[in-house]
Amino acid sequence: MSDLLSSLNPSQQEAVLHFEGPALVVAGAGSGKTRTVVHRIAYLLRERRVYPAEILAVTFTNKAAGEMKERLEKMVGRPARDLWVSTFHAAAVRILRTYGEYVGLRPGFVIYDEDDQNTLLKEVLKELELEAKPGPFRAMIDRIKNRGAGLAEYMREAPDFIGGVPKDAAAEVYRKYQSGLRMQGALDFNDLLLLTIELFEQHPEVLHKVQQRARFIHVDEYQDTNPVQYKLTRLLAGERPNLMVVGDPDQSIYGFRSADINNILDFTKDYPGARVIRLEENYRSSSSILRVANAVIEKNALRLEKVLRPTRPGGEPVRLYRAPNAREEAAFVAREIVKLGNFQQIAVLYRTNAQSRLLEEHLRRANVPVRLVGAVGFFERREIKDLLAYGRVAVNPADSINLRRIVNTPPRGIGATTVSRLVEHAQKTGTTVFEAFRVAEQVISRPQQVQAFVRLLDELIEAAFESGPTAFFQRVLEQTGFREALKQEPDGEDRLQNVEELLRAAQDWEEEEGGSLSDFLDSVALTAKAEEPQGDAPAEAVTLMTLHNAKGLEFPTVFLVARKKTLLPHRNSLHRLEDLEEERRLFYVGITRAQERLYLSYAEERETYGKREYTRPSRFLEDIPQDLLKEVGAFGDSEVRVLPQARPEPKPRTQLAEFKGGEKVRHPKFGSGTVVAAMGGEVTVMFPGVGLKRLAVKFAGLERLE
Predict the structure, then answer these.
(1) What residues are paired with 350 via a beta bridge?
(2) CA-CA-CA-CA dihedral for 446, 451, 453, 454, to nearest 10
(3) How is residue 54 annotated by DSSP?
(4) Band of the pLDDT at 652, cuts 50, 70, 90?
(5) Which residue in 27, 20, 21 sits closest to 43, CA to CA?
(6) 474 among known catalytic residues
(7) pLDDT for res 527
(8) What per-residue confidence (pLDDT) applies to 392?
(9) Residue 33 among the catalytic residues
(10) Catalytic pick from 303, 551, 593, 619?
């Protein structure tokens, strides 16, 4: 017994020694939660004589499940092989392979991945004669199923158009998709969980058998469970739950995937009398980093109280760099990384993938190898390649590869059959594909859409020789409906930001190099060629990734860039308290990835939608006491100054200074609430039981509560 506990702190020991009944382990960042779960399972096996086949441990990735099982095998040997350690989906597959016939599944059912889903959706769209791409519909299907909502319930709140088609037509796509799955004896990943729930609810005798197999249940990262995973956990735990969930509400950042933070916040309501154990000792970060992390996250209301305590005293101060513009910010990051060396120990984190472009460029110039995680190189992103394809066709109309790329991007009703017939005509007559498009009326019966496309290209061909790359791409965006099409996609906001970043890249190039669209395309081709493919990055490379992709990782040195208002918190999060707090958790996750050294930076001037504007630092930076930050100069020369004040905006400073967001206030009519957003003379306040109210500060009569 002593060897199981000797290396653990008192809170970890308390979690390990917990035997029966529900328990919530609130595990802060870097607090050794996986170690605690592994030791607890070993304790059940060695000291409580629980059979390995009676223990279920659920993780969120196959990698985590494999690592947990490997560690247990080293601790307890052969019995670990009989443990049930898996993801939610793998557990569901195991159950359905055994009992699936109870809910009408064929014994050899297949599981469709995203590519299979896209293929089926393309067939459905073709059958329904809808000119649209499968991505938005796959996202719609995921949202419906992840929330456990029926189609009718989802459609009541859905926008009028989904994927560019009316929502009634989108509902028919869903029905046809589900019918197609059934006809082919297939399930998608979401169906695995939904059918397992259906099995348990309709056949309690099956549920009872599985509960006997899973008497002691552990669920990791419980804050990331969605409504369906929550319901499945409740069913498995049953009336006498030996359920231990482990997680951290402060690291709940996947609301866009339907994760529900209330699952962990309400655990003690779901299981009255549940034991609550807090793991607050942090083994990852220095005390200077943790002081900043605690100062940020304590401003959130939707959390379970805890304070990370360092086991590593001292440490370098957290550095803040205020750049005059985004290009100087990227240059600063590159210079500091060159000085630090040990590239494999450094990560650069940002809110959206679009922000990687300048960083990639400056690191490449400094001969620093880069590994992009969770993203392709900037110029290899689909929407960027689509826009560049317009430019390449405008410069060289004989480029049939890029012509075929843009012919229905965004959708304009030119089907694959039409294109095939025109390509065949070009081959027969020895002309280019574009020339075949010009004589479409001789080849196809309904040439109107093709003729409109040719007129568009003729205008763009002329524009390519009359304007620079920035004006050309702006014209493409205006005349094709490109932006509107991206807005319909599940990750449309990120893709739109990539488009704006391409416009910035073109404008920067014009200012620095100058030249024609053709020259710019040559420059891009060389830049894209120089980008390091993710899989081929050298071992000693700096890691670039979004904050969402960084969760679960740690690095000796972390740079958090573009900590500015409208990026973090993202501008789409300013109208709901829940969304704003998730953005603050995202910032917190980024801070707690750092072990020894943390840099925060933002640019005072940025270009947004073609306009240069002064920006305020993120409100989350303003949550940090000034004495916890050391401001540094452009070349890293340290000079301690107070956190910079925002530049004046065209609003009275007294109104701007009064509220920043997060303050507790009282309204004469609506009662107490929390300021969610503040802009100019207006604030948005969340009042419990009332909802969001936008108020004019001058007339609202708000009383600030301490």
Answers:
(1) 546
(2) 150
(3) G
(4) very low
(5) 20
(6) no
(7) 59
(8) 87
(9) yes
(10) 593
pLDDT at 562 over 80: no
Q: Is the peptide bond before 569 cis (omega within 30 degrees of 0)?
A: yes
Take residue 255 and report the two structure tokens written for it: 């609301």
- Among all chains, which residue has been given the structure tokens 């020694």? 17
Residue 34 is a catalytic residue: yes
Q: What is the pLDDT of residues 452-504, one digit of tens each?
A: 999 999 999 999 988 899 999 999 999 998 998 888 787 788 889 889 989 98
Q: Among the options 54, 142, 191, 220, which is catalytic?
A: 220
- Please, what sign has the CA dihedral across residues 566, 568, 569, 571? positive
**Catalytic site residue 168?**
no
Instruction: Compute the distance between CA of residue 150 and CA of residue 161 in angstroms, rounded to an integer.
Output: 18
Decide: 188 and 118 in contact? Cβ < 8 Å. Answer: no
Question: Is position 221 annotated as part of the catalytic site?
Answer: yes
512 burial (CB, 10 Å; 0-12 / 13-18 / 19+) is exposed
Q: Return the residue matching tokens 């750049």.
A: 323
Catalytic residue among 13, 33, 606, 663: 33
Taking CB atoms within 8 Å and a gap of at least 24, the contacts of 647-652 are 647/604, 647/614, 647/616, 649/614, 649/616, 649/680, 651/680, 651/681, 652/681
User: At CA 310, angle to CA 304 and CA 315, rounded to 5?
Assistant: 135
Q: Provide the β-strand partners of residue 668.
A: none
Residues β-bridged to residue 277: 25
Q: Please, what sign has the CA dihedral across residues 605, 557, 596, 586?
A: positive
CA distance 601 to 329: 7
Cα 19 from Cα 25, distance rounded (Å): 13
Q: Which residue has the tokens 């649209």?
A: 132
Strand extents, DSSP E, 473-585: 542-546, 555-560
Say what the alpha-carbon torsion angle 114, 115, 120, 126 is, to the nearest 10 degrees. Answer: 120
Among the residues of 184-316, which ranges form H helices? 189-202, 204-213, 227-237, 262-265, 267-270, 287-297
What confidence tier does 44 reach under pLDDT thresholds 50, 70, 90? Answer: very high
Question: Could you write out the three-class secondary structure of 554-578?
Answer: CEEEEEECCCECEECCEHHHCCCHH
Q: What is the pTM of this model?
A: 0.74
The whole-angstrom separation of Cα 440 and Cα 279 is 69
Q: Checking DSSP bridges between strand 542-546 and strand 370-372, what pairing results, if any?
A: parallel
**DSSP for residue 214:** -
Does the active-site annotation cover 593? Answer: yes
Q: How sure is the predictor about 533, in pLDDT bands with cuts at 50, 70 and 90?
A: very low
Please tell me which residue in 34, 431, 432, 474 is annotated as part of the active site: 34
Q: Residue 627 and residue 143: Cα distance in Å, rounded?
A: 44
Give the full edge-to-edge strand order of the sheet including 691-696.
691-696, 682-687, 671-679, 664-667, 703-705
536 to 292, 373, 541, 696: CA distances (angstroms): 36, 12, 10, 55
Distance CA 579, CA 686 (A): 12
DSSP string, 605-639: EEEETTEEEE-PBPTTGGGS-GGGEEEE-TTS-B-
* Active-site residue identified among 221, 224, 604, 631: 221
Q: What is the residue type of 141?
A: I
Question: Which run of H or E residues covers position 416?
Answer: helix 416-429
Q: Which of 36, 211, 229, 251 is catalytic?
A: 251
Cis peptide leading into 22, omega within 30 of 0? no
Cα dihedral 221/222/224/226 (nearest 10): 150
